[in-house]
Amino acid sequence: MPFVRVTLYEGRSTEKKRRIAEAITEALVTIGGTTRDACQVVFEDVAKEDWVTGGAPEFSDKAAKR
């Protein structure tokens, strides 16, 4: 049973998430050989200020200069 967790900045619409989940499911069925009913896609929305890379929040000036 494929399980896919998608972590994104918060703010994506339900429609966008539905389209992303559909594309992932289709790829798992077509390429992975599984069934649609077996696929699970879970979205985790993270606030930008809670997403940190290299010790600096993603939205900070330091992160933007990378």
UniProtKB/TrEMBL annotation:
Gene3D superfamilies: Macrophage Migration Inhibitory Factor
Location of the 4-oxalocrotonate tautomerase-like domain: 2-55
UniProt keyword list: Isomerase
Record-given protein name: 4-oxalocrotonate tautomerase family protein
Family classification: Belongs to the 4-oxalocrotonate tautomerase family.
GO molecular-function terms, A-Z: isomerase activity
SUPFAM superfamilies, A to Z: Tautomerase/MIF
InterPro entries noted in UniProt: 4-OT-like_dom, Tautomerase/MIF_sf
Highest taxon, organism lineage: Bacteria
Provenance organism: Candidatus Segetimicrobium genomatis
